[in-house]
Structures are given as structure tokens and as C-alpha cells.
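[audit] Reproducing an earlier prediction to check determinism. Same input, same settings, fresh worker. If the C-alpha cells differ from the archived copy the diff job will pick it up downstream; this log only records the rerun itself.
[audit] input (393 residues):
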Amino acid sequence: MLVGTAIPVAAVFALCEPAQARVTASAAFATFGPQIIGTTSAPLNITLTNTGRRETTIVGASLSLAVFSWSGFSLPVTLFPDQSVVVAVTFAPSAAQMYSDLLVFTSANGFTSSVALSGTGIPAPPVISTQPVSQSVIAGQTATFSVAAASTVPVSYQWLKNGAAISGATSPIYTTPATTASDEGAQFTVTVTNSTGSITSAPATLTAIPATFLLALASTVLSFGNVDLSATTSQSVTLTNAGNSAVTISNVTVSGAGFTASGVAGGLILPPGQTATLNVTFAPAASGTVAGSVAVASNATNSPALITLSGAGVAPSVVLSWTASTSAVIGYNSYSSAVPGGPYNKLNASPVATTTYTDNTVQSGKTYYYVVTSVDSDNVESVFSNEVSVTVP
């Protein structure tokens, strides 16, 4: 009889981990460089790969800040083992500050994969909205250049002349010192800088026009002719600044007896194109011809400007004339009085043969009354003629 012996048998089971799906990002961090406010960065690409042994579906993605965004595929998306998708992440800052966020993708099985995002917003470099304009000035004057710049943050300015920085010229407006001929053709630029960057303006050219100083006279000769003693007569001359720079009158000098000048005094400044009137007066104190001049001294190149003067002082007189007598006469006598009707004073010592007589004894501003008589060969004098009156100017 065969007897069997029971031999114990051990049952061994191999316990296997269930196949799982896992999505892994190619980078745990995505850092953007400085980005100008209001602009969008170039995308940073991140690869999501199913590193598990089963297919999985990404059903969600989340971000906390609107300055970061992602694109590349639409949710939900199913990934088979070793299959990948690419996520493009961009950064568009709205303020000058640092930003950080977490981009989280969630799978249907609850597994999450995240990428830490960071970036810094910076202001835009300045922009020149109005360029400096070239200037033309007369040597000795100043020139002013200006610039207008746009920036969201404070800016600084530095003006340069022919590429070299000008000490102290750090505002939007720059006024040069008094220009000289050596400044002709100088180039002026300005560099505008903010916390992000800088920009240099287009060059503006300075044209230095040579200064001219010229005092023009409307007349260089004044002739007053005959002027009665104690009388006064005046003439005027226009002075014009015919140059391009201010003319300063230093003094006015008059020579010649009886001549005076007024209207233009030392210290008078005539801008270019402006005029002044010089008045010259002749008041002779004695009979005879007088010569004189007016010299106008200034900073003009034709200084002194000269005006030649001439005139003659003559005693005032009254010229009498009458109709010849129809009788035989040898001459006539003239009489005058200071009052109407006489008494009369005889003017001529002996009868005059002509029918005219000049009274040189009169004075300006007075009135005289005249009569005439005729004298025959027997030296008999006629009665007085009718009376005439004359007022001496």
C-alpha cells in the first residue's frame, strides 16, 4: 500500500505596483529678464511629459497673476506614456516691480505639476518728442536750445557741445554764454537718461553771425542860410542803426557859434533798425557867416558820425518901396515911428534917388510905422505919404 506523505506547499504571490500616470515639467523654474512695462516678453517654452506607464489627461491649469500667461494647447489634453506637449509662457508687466507666480497643471488623477515663474517690470527708456532746433544768432548774443522728452519715471539731462559735456547744463533748456566767432558751426546735443536707459538727441547747429555796428545819417550837411539876429531856426537829422547789433551813443559834440543840438543824449541805445531824431538849432548872436559841426560818438565802426553845419547871422531889416513922384524931384526921405501917426524919425541923412530904402535899425518882434516924402530941386519937402506898418518877425 502506498502511503503518501503530505508535503507542505508554499504559495508565493508577487504583488505589483499598479501602473500610474505622471506628468513631469522640463523645468521647475522659468525666470524672465527685465521687461519694459506694457510690453510682452518672448515666450519661454516648457515641455510637459507623461513619464508614467498609463495615459493621463491634463484637465486644468492655474495662474494667480494676470501678468503671466500660457499657451500651446487646449484643455483637456490626453498624453500617452512618454508623450509630451509644449507650453509657451509669456510675461507682460504692468508696473515697475518684481513678480512671482506658480503655474500649476492638474491631471485627471489628481496629480499636479508646477513651474515657478518670476520676472521684473522696468520702465521704458526715455523718448525724445521734440528735438533741439538749430539757432542763428549774432556774435555777442546768447543762443537757447531746448528738448522735450517723454518718460514714465524721472529723467536727467546732459547737454554736449561738439560731443563734450557742458558743465552745469543739466536741464531741458540750455542757454549758451555770449557767442563768439569761434562758435560758428558748433553742434549741440542732449542726452536724456532714466533708470532704464538713455537717448541722445539729433544735433542742433549754432550759426554765429558776425556783429555789425553802423550808424547811418539821413543827412550829413545842414545849411541854415541867413537867419536874423535874435531869431532861431531848427532842422533835424534821422539817425538809424543800420547794423545788426545795438549801437550805443556815447556823446554828441557841437561846434560853431550859435549851434546847439538836442534829442539824442549820451547813453542812448539804438537796437538794430531803430531810429532817433537829432535836432540842430541855429540862433546867431552876431552878423556874419558861421560854420560848425555835430559829432555823434558811438560804438559804431563809423564813429564819430559827422554833420557839417553852416549859416549866417543877419540883422533884421525892413525894405520900403514906393511909387515915384510925378513932379520933378531930386530924391526921397523915409521916416519911421514906434506908434501910429508919429512922431516920426528921419532915417536917411540925405534924399535917396531911388524909390526903395532898407531900414536896418529894426528889432525882431516889434512893429514900425513908415511914411515917405519927396524933395524937389529947391530942397522943398512934400507932406508925408500915407502910413504903412510893418511887424518884424
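[audit] rerun output stored. Observation attached for the diff report: Residues 331 and 354 are 7 Å apart (CA to CA).
[audit] end
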